[in-house]
Write a structure and sequence with these properties.
Length: 140
């Protein structure tokens, strides 16, 4: 009889005050944990994977790349599923997926921004020559 009364008392309290609300409240921490994992782990990883895939499709002859194994090389041939990379004295055929990154500072000449400093230095040198010629013409 003691057990029946205890069970009845616990069942009666849950049904009277809002057992459904406490059941939903138990899921709130799980929902919050999933949201945190999604925004801190899953979403950034998907973004990086998308950028890596775009980088792999944009590879072209002449790019300097770094393989997953850490080898630096220049792309000689591009095929649909593999690349031929020059490692100095050696040529290696690798899968596109084996490319980790494009080496920093290795943009092809068409991709490199023109140096404003060198252009302005050339212009200044030309101006100095013209100014020197004008001064010598004025002195005569």
């Amino acid at each position: 009889m003691f057990w029946t009364t205890t069970a009845y008392a616990m069942g009666g309290a849950g049904a009277a005050g809002g057992g459904e609300a406490s059941g939903f409240a138990g899921f709130i921490p799980l929902i919050l944990m999933f949201a945190v994992f999604y925004f801190l782990l899953i979403r950034p990883q998907q973004k990086r994977a998308k950028e890596h895939k775009a980088m792999l499709t944009a590879l072209k002859r002449g790019d300097t790349v770094v393989t997953m194994g850490g080898l630096y090389g220049t792309i000689l041939e591009v095929a649909e599923d593999h690349l031929v990379i020059d490692l100095g004295d050696t040529r290696v055929k690798v899968s596109r997926g084996a490319i980790s990154t494009i080496a920093p500072g290795s943009a092809s000449p068409a991709q490199r921004p023109r140096s404003k400093k060198s252009d302005s230095a050339k212009e200044n040198a030309d101006k100095d020559k013209d100014a020197g010629a004008e001064e010598s013409a004025d002195k005569e």
